[in-house]
Design brief:
The protein is mostly helical and about 500 residues long. It has helices at about 10-30, 35-60, 75-105, 110-125, 130-150, 155-185, 190-205, 210-230, 235-245, 245-255, 255-270, 285-305, 310-330, 340-370, 385-390, 390-405, 410-425, 430-455, 470-485, 490-500; strands spanning about 65-70, 75. It has a two-stranded antiparallel sheet with strand order 1-2. A hairpin with a 4-residue loop joins strand 1 (about 65-70) and strand 2 (about 75). Helix 9 (about 235-245) packs across helix 13, helix 12 (about 285-305) runs parallel beside helix 18 (about 430-455) and helix 14 packs antiparallel against helix 19 (about 470-485). The radius of gyration is 22 Å and the shape is globular. The model is unreliable at about 280-285 (pLDDT under 50).
Amino acid sequence: MLTTLPPAFLAYPEIFLLGAACAILLIDLFLGEETRWLSYALSLAALLGCAVLTVVVAGATGGRPAHTFNGMFVSDLMANLLKMFSYVAVTLCLVYSRTYLSDRGLFRGEYFALVLFATLGMMVMISASHFLTLYLGLELMSLCLYSLVALNRDSALSTEAAMKYFVLGALASGLLLYGMSMIYGATGSLEIIDVARKTAAILQSDGPSSKAVLALGLVFMVSGLAFKLGVVPFHMWIPDVYHGAPSAITLFIGSAPKLAAFAMAMRLLAGALQPLSGDALQFPSGWQDMLIILSVLSMAIGNLAAIAQSNIKRMLAYSTISHMGFMLLGLLSGVVNGNTLSAADAWSSAMFYAVVYVLMSLGAFGMVVLLSRAGFEAERLEDFKGLNARSPWFAFIMLLVMFSLAGVPPLVGFYAKLSVLQAVIAAGHLWLALVAVGFSLVGAFYYLRVVKLMYFDEPHDSSAIVPKLDMGILLSANGLAVLVLGILPQPLMQLCLYSIKGL
């Protein structure tokens, strides 16, 4: 059936979103402040259209991997599932941010266009089967995120954060691109499947020079990937960007792009560089050992630094670093003596963790946006004091999110950590699982501190919290989803496993 379809059929969601984003940018030129809601509605409609087209593409391919554009673009189960989760995450970001941006004069066409173009970059990253496609999607997403951080041009803090993000992001992109060029020099190919095949052949040969080039390329590519994931020691941008950006932008940066970063890690490590995972290189070790170091450092520094924070956005930034370290545990556990079944279990646990983290991050930053109002940013931990007295329902939602981030059963964050730890133990790294559990206990402190402030301290502000209807409903559903998926985690876990097996 695929042979009868147009060559660009697999990329119809991306093509549609590109056209929709350009159209919204042009339409917004003719809208006044009182009709700006039209750009907002069209943006949501564009995401809905992408979801429909993604379902159509998935149905036409029958769940099997399909390539187009000379093998540069792939549609498979993992790509389609991550795209659907991305649409949901971006939709929630738009809804949560509406009032916040309107109060600050940032509810403009530029915001919608940048968000949609960043989403397009994520979609291209998720479906990349070629180094150039991956890099194109990465740069499209990154350039939009740099601009979004600086969207509030009157804020010196936002401008400073955008400059730091841009400079460090350019450095990381250079590292990644240099690594890709080294891999290309050794294998003579940029197509992910071909790179994996030729890399395996090089490792079986006796040519030491090619192995050295592969080793160097691997180090640079893992470094560039680590920056995009925000793991130690490439984490320095996350606290400053999360703090300096407007809370609505932090909400976006801290959620949907993590799904694209996970897809990028899967395409590069589990795809192109899978032969370099173990000890075949001898010097340096494979990327599995590199990820072990990055993971332990991220969990240690992320959790310990978060304890010292008085700003909740910086606290959640360091929390992100520790959670990305946890996600790396699932990725590195996929290397188990070539056992593809164990690899699928491990990588599906990492995918489950990434999806769950995005859900929890949306809830946490959504509450920060909810408590912020015109002329006031709810960024300090003290701003959450007595939240239960002001709004018992939203205090309960925040409690669910904090407990889930801490890994308290029966919330979904517990099962996300449990699935990753099971994968780590199955891979024979018992000591690593014990280290992860220890740092999880350390991390529980700063999440429980937020709960203590909400329920046991007196509020500074006694005003009631009355969100718009759409935000109130979706934020409540967001928090309850953390509970429901914790009670019934199997459907989502099986979906992730099914999509990974379909690679």
